[in-house]
Design a protein that fits this description.
binds S-adenosylmethionine; 23% strand; 7-stranded mixed β-sheet; 6 helices
Length: 183
């Protein structure tokens, strides 16, 4: 499990979200490593990697997106209902389309943002997901070493008078995590 999500270790009955799920690898790590009651998995599975990562040269087809979703379902399916009351909830929408009716404000212990990495979209994600975090909960994300992500996060969290923590390369994940707790 990555550095940000591991901050939730020791807390019970978590309600959280991963925004940008892809193959479901990190979602599975969180499910295995944390006491999660409900994990929202938000990913439309129709986005080109060229859009997520503007500097990337990896082409992404609809077929590849579907392969990712099928693999994620397979990976996460065994965990459905592995204990009473536990569930995952897929939401096949863009991050910014999740309104207060879908996920109420102040209902999440944590959210992990790892979707579109373009500055404007990260800014929009932060604006949408910050209100959904409970006081004492954590907003976090991946790829803090992307200048676009770092700029958006630093501006937003500064505005909220919050404090950013970060964790760099751990030898396996070259990319870094960030997190901020809501007062
Ligand atoms: C880097 S991958 C996520 C990897 C995953 N978090 C992990 O570590 O295993 C990015 C994913 O974000 C999704 N995505 C891109 N833009 C999105 C958006 N605006 N809202 C939700 N998901 C988005 C893509 O479909 C892709 O599957």
């Amino acid at each position: 499990m990555r550095a940000a999500a591991s901050r939730m270790r020791g807390r019970e009955n978590l309600v959280g979200a991963e925004v940008g799920v892809e193959w479901g690898e990190h979602a599975r790590e969180m499910i295995n490593g944390l006491s999660i009651d409900l994990l929202y998995l938000v990913d439309p599975y129709i986005v080109s990697w060229l859009h997520c990562f503007p500097l990337s040269n990896i082409p992404m087809t609809v077929e590849e997106s579907m392969r990712q979703y099928q693999a994620a379902c397979k990976r996460l399916e065994p965990h459905r209902g592995f204990r009473e009351g536990w569930k995952i909830k897929w939401i096949h929408k863009f991050s910014w389309q999740i309104d207060e009716f879908e996920i109420p404000n102040e209902s999440l212990d944590f959210a992990y943002l790892d979707a579109d990495h373009v500055y404007q979209t990260v800014k929009m994600d932060l604006t949408v997901w910050w209100p959904k975090i409970k006081p004492g909960g954590m907003l976090s994300g991946h790829d803090f070493d992307f200048p676009s992500v770092r700029k958006a996060v630093e501006e937003f969290i500064r505005e909220k008078e919050g404090e950013i923590s970060e964790h760099g390369n751990d030898g396996k994940n070259v990319k870094s995590d960030w997190w901020a707790f809501k007062k």
